[in-house]
Write a structure and sequence with these properties.
- With about 450 residues, this protein is α/β, with parallel strands linked by helices.
- It has one domain (about 5-430): Glycosidases (TIM Barrel), CATH 3.20.20.
- The chain is about 40% helix and about 15% strand.
- The chain has helices at about 30-35, 35-50, 60-65, 75-85, 110-125, 140-145, 160-185, 205-215, 220-225, 230-240, 245-250, 285-300, 315-335, 380-390, 415-435, and strands at about 10-15, 20, 25-30, 55-60, 65-70, 70, 90-95, 130-135, 190-195, 195-200, 260-265, 270, 280, 300-305, 340-345, 350, 365.
- Strands 1-4-7-8-9-11-14-15 form an eight-stranded parallel beta barrel, surrounded by five helices. Strands 10-12-13 form a three-stranded mixed sheet. It has a two-stranded antiparallel sheet with strand order 2-3.
- Helix 12 runs parallel beside helix 13 (about 315-335).
- The longest helix has 25 residues, at about 160-185.
- The protein starts with 9 loop residues before the first strand and ends in a 5-residue tail after the last helix.
Length: about 450
C-alpha cells in the first residue's frame, strides 16, 4: 500500500548530535557521548517507538564519520540507520550540528562548502532510502556563536568573522541540497533555524532593534535566494562578502524542495538597549506571532522543529510549555499557515546547554521527554498523549500540506522508484529551462 499518500502530521523528536569545539579546539562538546547515546542507541530508538513517533531528527557524528576528503567511517551510521529503516522510523537527517571535523578546522575555512557537499552526497549515496534532510542545523546560530560571540569553534568575535562563517555555512547548505538532489531527486529539506525577535526597550533602542530584526533573516534570505534588506547588503559588503558571493545565493532556486523549520524557545526573544546590547526578554510575542512573520517573508510550509523547557520544582513546567507551544501551532494553522509538524527537542535530557555548551561541566539539563536513565518525564507522558489525541484529527481538519513522504519500508516499491524518476525528470527539465530563461530571484 502506498501509505505516503495518507495525510500525516509530522510529530517528531530529536536525538541531540551537537559537537562544537571549545577552549581553542581542545575540547569537543559531543552531545551524543554526553547523553549516553553511543551506549544506549537501541534503547533510545525503543523510546521513540514507545511515544508513537515516526519522525526523528537524527544524524551521524560528523567529526568521527567524515575522516578526510572522500574518506568516511560509516560503521556507526550503518548500524543506527539500518535499525531506523527496520523500525520504519523516518529520519530527518541532521548532517552538521554546530561542529566540523578537526581536519577541516572551523567555519572560517573557505574549503568547507565544497567538502561538506561531498560529504552530503556520500551520505545520500550510502543511504538512498533517506528522503528528509536538515543539512546544517541552525545556520545563523552556528555562525553567531562561533564567530560573533566567540563561544565555539573558531571562537572569534567580530562582524567580519561572522559574515565569513555565515557565507560559508549557507553556501555549504545550498551545495549540500544540490548534491543530495543529484542522488535523491524527491528529497525534502526541513531547514531548522532559530526564529528570533528583538524588542526595543526605549525610543533610542528602536534603530538597533530594527537592525537586529533585519539581521535575524540573513541565513534564510541567502539560503532561499531572497534579496536581503538594503542595510544588510551594506553590512555584508562591509564585512567581507563579495558581489559574486552574494549573487551566488541569488542564483539558487531550491525553495520548491524546502520546508521552513522554525525553532522557538523562551530565550528567542530579546530586549535591546540604546547601545545595541541585548538581554533575554522571555516570551513576549510567542511562536505564533514570530513564525507568522517568517512565513510572510518566505511563503513556505512550516514545521516547528525545536522547543523545550526545563522540568522545574513543580514537575509540570515543561508540560505547561508543551501545551502552550501546541496551542501556538494550532493558532498558526488556523490562521492559514501551512504547518506540517511539531518537535519536542530532544528525546532525552541534554548536558551543559545551561552554558550554551561553552563549558564542559557535565551538568544535566532536565529538558528531555526522558531523563538520562531513560525514564519517562511528565512531559514525555503528555507528548505521548498529545500525539495519540491529535494525529488522526489534524490531517482531516487542517490546511497542513500532505508531504509526499516515502516510508523507509516502501523505498524499494515500484511506485516509489517511479516517484523518484519523475522528480528527477522534473528537476532536469526545470534546470534546463532555468538555464535558458536565466530568471532573477528578486
Amino acid at each position: 500500500m502506498n501509505t505516503s499518500m495518507v495525510p500525516q502530521f509530522l510529530f517528531a523528536t530529536g536525538i541531540e548530535n551537537s559537537n562544537p569545539t571549545i577552549q581553542g579546539g581542545k575540547i569537543r562538546q559531543d552531545e551524543l557521548a554526553k547523553c549516553g547515546h553511543y551506549q544506549h542507541w537501541r534503547q533510545d530508538f525503543d523510546l521513540v517507538e514507545e511515544l508513537g513517533i515516526r519522525f526523528l531528527r537524527y544524524g551521524p557524528p560528523i567529526h568521527t564519520t567524515f575522516l578526510g576528503q572522500q574518506q568516511y567511517d560509516w560503521s556507526f551510521a550503518d548500524e543506527t540507520f539500518g535499525h531506523l529503516r527496520q523500525r520504519d522510523i523516518i529520519p530527518i537527517v541532521d548532517l552538521c550540528h554546530f561542529g566540523v571535523p578537526d581536519w577541516i578546522g572551523n567555519f572560517q575555512n573557505s574549503d568547507f562548502p565544497v567538502l561538506f557537499a561531498e560529504y552530503a552526497q556520500a551520505f545520500a549515496q550510502r543511504f538512498p532510502w533517506v528522503q528528509l534532510y536538515t543539512p546544517i542545523n541552525e545556520m545563523y546560530i552556528c555562525a553567531e556563536f562561533s564567530a560573533l560571540h566567540g563561544w565555539w569553534n573558531e571562537q572569534l568575535a567580530n562582524d567580519t568573522a561572522f559574515v565569513t562563517a555565515l557565507k560559508h555555512i549557507v553556501k555549504a547548505n545550498v551545495l549540500a541540497m544540490n548534491a543530495v538532489l543529484g542522488v535523491r531527486a524527491d528529497a525534502i529539506f526541513i531547514q531548522s533555524e532559530s526564529s528570533e525577535y528583538f524588542h526595543a526597550e526605549n525610543p533610542a533602542a528602536i534603530k538597533p532593534a530594527e537592525l537586529l530584526n533585519a539581521k535575524r533573516f540573513l541565513s534564510l534570505d541567502l539560503n532561499y535566494g531572497r534579496r536581503v534588506d538594503s542595510e544588510m547588503y551594506e553590512y555584508l559588503m562591509d564585512n567581507g562578502m563579495t558581489r559574486d558571493e552574494y549573487h551566488f545565493f541569488l542564483g539558487q532556486d531550491l525553495k520548491q524542495y524546502c520546508i521552513m523549520g522554525n525553532d522557538y524557545y523562551q530565550t528567542n526573544e530579546h530586549r535591546v538597549s540604546a547601545d545595541g546590547s541585548t538581554r533575554a526578554s522571555g516570551e513576549v510575542f510567542g511562536y505564533h506571532v514570530i513564525t507568522t512573520q517568517y512565513h510572510d517573508r518566505y511563503r513556505l510550509p512550516v514545521m516547528h522543529t525545536e522547543t523545550n523547557l526545563w522540568q522545574g520544582p513543580n514537575g509540570d513546567e515543561a508540560v505547561n510549555w508543551l501545551w502552550k507551544e501546541w496551542a501556538n501551532v494550532l493558532r498558526v494553522r488556523n490562521d492559514g499557515v501551512p504547518i506540517i509538524g511539531f518537535t519536542w527537542y530532544s528525546l532525552t535530557d541534554q548536558v551543559d546547554w545551561d552554558t550554551a555548551l561553552r563549558e564542559n561541566n557535565g551538568t544535566v539539563n532536565p529538558l528531555g521527554l526522558y531523563d538520562l536513565n531513560r525514564q519517562i518525564r511528565p512531559v514525555g507522558q503528555a507528548y505521548k498523549q498529545l500525539i495519540k489525541d491529535w494525529q488522526q484529527v489534524l490531517p482531516a481538519h487542517s490546511v497542513c500540506l500532505q508531504v509526499p513522504i516515502v516510508m523507509p519500508s516502501e523505498s524499494n516499491e515500484s511506485w516509489a522508484h517511479k516517484k523518484q524518476n519523475d522528480a528527477k525528470a522534473a528537476r532536469q527539465y526545470g534546470g534546463s529551462r532555468a538555464s535558458r530563461t536565466n530568471p532573477s530571484n528578486a
